Amino acid sequence: MHILNCTGCTSLTTISDQPLLSILRCKGCTSLVKIGKLPMLKYLCCRGCTNLTSVPVSSWFEQLHCADSGVMTIPHLEKLTVLNCNGCTNLTKIHVLPSVKVLSCNECTSLVDIPTLSNLSILFCTRCTRFTKVPEPGDFDFPKLKQVVVKDG
Question: What percentage of the chain carries pLDDT values higher than 90?
Fold first, then answer.
């Protein structure tokens, strides 16, 4: 397991060419604009990376924590089980995530809806002011959904 912790490296602009990297922590790297191909990445925490607009695609991704970042789209990530994108005010699209069980998208004020997530069991979507419909336990498209936390203010 290869780990890179560059938390708080405010002058770091790019991370790439780390083919064996499985855990990346770059919380608060405010100048980070690009994360290149990291094919073995399982865990990424890019919280507070306000200039980072996209996350890399990895077939091994299990957890993504991109809260308060500039991320605009969550790509299709086959094995992702936990997604925390709280406060991603630029986030407009989440692609289908077949394995995601926990989604926390509080204060994602540009996000209009979430796709069908057949394994989702817990959803936090407080102050998602543009949501057109909030899934509820028992919804056909969310058969495993057990808990939804929604608050408007």
Answer: 82
Tell me the longest C-alpha to C-alpha distance in the chain: 47
Cα 7 to chain centroid distance, Å, stands at: 17
With 0-12 CB in 10 A as exposed, 13-18 as middle and 19+ as buried, what is 38? buried
Measured distance CA(146)–CA(106) in Å, rounded:
18
Radius of gyration of the chain (CA): 15
Q: What angle do CA 60, 86, 120 make, to 5 degrees?
A: 55
Q: Provide the pLDDT for residue 131.
A: 87
Instruction: For tokens 């790439």, name the residue.
Output: 16
In the block, tokens 């938390």 appear at 7
d(C-alpha 140, C-alpha 143), whole Å: 6
Residues found in the chain: 153
Nearest to 116 by CA among 98, 141, 95: 141
CA–CA dist 32, 53 (Å, integer): 9
Query: What's the pTM value of the predicted model, to 2 decimals?
Result: 0.93
Closest by CA position to 127, among listed 93, 152, 90, 148: 152
Q: How far apart are CA 97 and CA 85, in angstroms?
A: 14
